Amino acid sequence: MGNAGRYLIVALISAAVALGTLWVSRSLLAPQEHSGGKLHAFVHQQLDLDREQEARIEALEVRFASRRAELEATLRQANAELARAMASEHQYGPRVAAAVDHAHMAMGDLQKATLEHIFAMRALLRPDQAVRFDRAVDKALTEAGGG
Predict the structure, then answer these.
(1) What stretches pass through the bilayer (predicted)?
(2) Tens-of-pLDDT digits for all 147 residues of the chain?
(3) Nearest to residue 71, comparing CAs of 106, 115, 100, 105?
(4) For 120, left (φ over 0), alpha (ψ -120 to 50), or beta?
(5) I need a labelling partner for 90 at 20 to 30 A (CA). Which of 31, 74, 113, 133 fits?
(6) Cα(21)–Cα(146) distance, rounded to whole angstroms?
(7) What share of the chain is helix, strand, coil (3-state, %, to 5)?
(8) Cα dihedral sign for 73, 113, 104, 25?
(9) Whole-angstrom Cα distance, residue 26 to residue 57?
(10) Nearest CA to 92 among 8, 2, 30?
(11) How far apart are CA 71 and CA 75, in angstroms?
């Protein structure tokens, strides 16, 4: 396989990683009523939140849902940019390289926002709840299938 073939494979893998990041974000953190996000279901069903915690976490979720939608749109745009660059260059050229970098930045921004959201929720928990939350996060991130 020539260099162009290897670069095409790298570009395709990058696109797959971008889609995987999007899927993990949606499946792990999506509000329970929308797509059954396991972590949010755990927080609301298993941590015995008091009313103040429920209200504060709900406010975090509303803000994060909006931010996540923006970041996912940017990621979709970056993936479309990558597809266009691949279609026009048919090799790992400057447009493909720039599009891969853009997709990686978008993935990183989504991952950072997701982690900020997780830590913001954790900050609202009592110590006994935080221990259980940490275990659930660890399990969600390390289980086969991403959560």
Answers:
(1) 6-24
(2) 676 666 667 666 666 665 555 555 554 555 434 333 788 888 888 898 999 999 999 999 999 999 999 999 999 999 999 999 999 989 888 999 999 999 999 999 999 999 999 999 999 999 999 999 999 888 888 875 544
(3) 106
(4) alpha
(5) 74
(6) 10
(7) 85, 0, 15
(8) negative
(9) 17
(10) 8
(11) 6
pLDDT tens, position by position, 68-109: 999 999 999 999 999 999 999 898 889 999 999 999 999 999
Q: Are 58 and 44 in contact (CB under 8 A)?
A: no
User: Amino acid identity of 118?
Assistant: I
Q: In this structure, how many other beta carbons lie within 10 angstroms of the beta carbon of residue 93? A: 14
Q: Which two tokens stand for residue 25?
A: 């974000």
Domains and their CATH numbers in the chain: 3-142 (1.20.120.1490)
Largest CA distance in the chain: 61
Query: What b/e sequence results for 102-132 when a residue is b if at least 16 CB atoms lie within 10 Å of its CB, and e otherwise?
Result: bbeebbebbeebbeebbebbeebbeeebeeb
d(CA 78, CA 56): 33
CA dihedral over 108, 114, 118, 120, signed as positive or negative: positive
